[in-house]
Amino acid sequence: MNQLSRLPSVSRLLSDAEVEALVDSHGQKVITRLVRETLADAREAARAGEAIPDSTDLIAKVTAAARALTLPRLRPVYNLTGTVLHTNLGRASLPEAAISALVTAARNPCALEYDIEDGGRGDRDDVVNDLLCELTGAEAATVVNNNAAAVFLLLNTLARKKQTKVIVSRGELIEIGGAFRVPDIMKRAGAKLVEVGTTNRTHLKDFREAITGRTAMLMKIHTSNFAIQGFTHSVPERELAELAHAHELPFVVDLGSGTLTELERWGLPHEPTPRESIEAGADLVTFSGDKLLGGPQAGLLVGRKDLIDRIKKNPLKRALRVGKITLAALEAVLRLYRDPDRLQERLTALQQLSRPEADIRSAAERLLPSLRGVLASLPVTVEIVPLRSQIGSGSLPVDRLASAGLAVRPQGKKSGVLHRIEAGLRRLDRPVIGRIEDDALLLDLRCLAPAEESEFATNLAGLSCS
Ligand SMILES: *Cc1c(COP(=O)(O)O)cnc(C)c1O
Q1: Is 250 in the pocket of ligand 1 (CB under 6 A)?
Q2: Strand order in the sheet with 192-196
Q3: CB of 176 closer than 6 A to ligand 1?
Q4: Contact 304/294 with Cβ under 8 angstroms?
């Protein structure tokens, strides 16, 4: 017990110059709490037979705890996973135009629901309504929290009436990850699902035969995160639209990703656009703001004005609406699409997706010495390798983008060292997120901008893999 009396008191530790400096930056309350907790831990450890730490050790512990407490939980990472629109890493990085717009909106009052012309109340959807109509050819538009919310609101507005049903092809009843399953969303929205066709083939007559007096709509869902190959058939949008309209039903499309431009122009595979669906006769189209569009998290609904008006009147719209920061960023991103010639240089997501392989390979050449340097004492080799990046967020699952990066491989048979390095990279000031595949730790450099490279190397120098 007299061992324990060698521990300094709370007030002794608090009067130490280093701890006083911590109080200055983090506040009295937090540091007093951390000092108490550190002393309590030391006491408990001493009772368990461990050595009594000296003041220097204790202060180092308080300092580390204070640092850990002030690091933001939502902190930036380096996405070297090879998946550009990575849902778990926040999907699209915003372009500068959107960042400055959202900062301005955050800092100031703005005309969110205020009509500057007549001084009366406005509608927050007006911030982006005209732009969305211009870019998609739709009559009207509305915005909610994400595309899952858009689909939910659409179904809840148009198919909730007792006994009405939504007809969907069985091959499109998808799960998007993060628990978005089309049948579940339908049920929660109060809509009843009628599945038609088979997993691989659905024909127009399957839809035709399923239509009854209780049908609420025909729906097409873009099967974004998988591809069925071989003996397949799905019904083109135009035919579904004609069939729906012949029965005075709406035809709606959940596009999922949905971009507002022709991606082929930048050597990327074609992804269906809302404009194509509208031109094919869709009455409503929903898509995400933070997938291929390259904007903030949002769900966009575009289409017939009478249907959009009904959706806007649903009380749940109020619960699913977006805030001014999202709208400011979305408006800025949509504006960029007005000038396709300069879209690639301005829209971060597109820049990353269309980055040439040779360019990524030169980044790998520049960064190879840094990574070799920090791993020099470990039994691994580091090499430049060709890689394949994915678009991510369920887009174009079969298309892989030619990329390059660094591969760390164990010298012996044991791959435990890779997991230690991978964990070490995650513990850096700015965590570096790669992937382990085929006994190699792979760092795909597509999403590391050249301007970030020197900061990346400095950050890497802090690596410890113990
Ligand atoms: C991604 C996706 C959704 C969900 O969109 P969020 O914006 O993530 O809510 C819905 N449907 C399809 C087809 C999708 O690809």
Answers
A1: no
A2: 140-144, 299-303, 284-288, 251-256, 215-221, 165-169, 192-196
A3: yes
A4: no
The pLDDT value recorded for residue 182 is: 83
Alpha-carbon torsion angle 87, 89, 91, 97, nearest 10: 160
- State residue 287 phi and psi, 5-degree precision: -160, 165
Q: Give me the pLDDT at residue 466, please.
A: 75
Q: Give the nearest ligand 1 atom to 297 CA.
A: 7
Q: Would you state the pLDDT for residue 228?
A: 66
What's the mean pLDDT in 423-428? 96
Mutate to test the pocket of ligand 1, among 145, 172, 180 (most ligand atoms within 8 A of CB): 180
Whether the CB-CB separation of 187 and 156 falls below 8 Å is answered with: no
DSSP label of 71:
S
Mean pLDDT of 9-20: 95
Instruction: Please indicate whether residue 81, judged by its CB atom, sits closer than 6 Å to ligand 1.
Output: no
pLDDT of residue 224: 65
Mutate-to-test residue for ligand 1 from 254, 255, 277, 391, highest number of ligand atoms within 8 A of CB: 254
Fill in the amino acid letter for 102. L
Tally of CB atoms within 10 A around 94 = 23
By C-alpha distance, which of 352, 334, 199 is closest to 261?
A: 334
Mean pLDDT of 36-57: 92
CA pseudo-torsion sign 204, 206, 211, 214: negative
The token pair that represents 102 in the structure block: 């959202």
- Angle among Cα 407, 411, 415 to the nearest 5 degrees reads 75
Out of 151, 176, 287, 292, give the residue to mutate to test ligand 1, the one with the largest number of ligand atoms within 8 Å of its CB: 176
78-87+351-460: CATH topology:
Aspartate Aminotransferase, domain 1 (3.90.1150)
How much distance in Å is there from the Cα of 271 to the middle of ligand 1?
A: 14
Report the 10 Å Cβ neighbour count for 31.
24
Task: Please indicate whether residue 283, judged by its CB atom, sits closer than 6 Å to ligand 1.
Answer: no
Whole-number Å distance, alpha carbon 103 to ligand 1 midpoint, is 27
Q: Render pLDDT for 142-188 as a digit per residue (tens, 0 to 9).
A: 999 999 999 999 999 999 987 789 999 998 887 766 667 888 888 89
Fold exhibited by the domain 96-346: Aspartate Aminotransferase; domain 2 (3.40.640)
**Distance (Å) from CA 4 to ligand 1 centroid:** 58
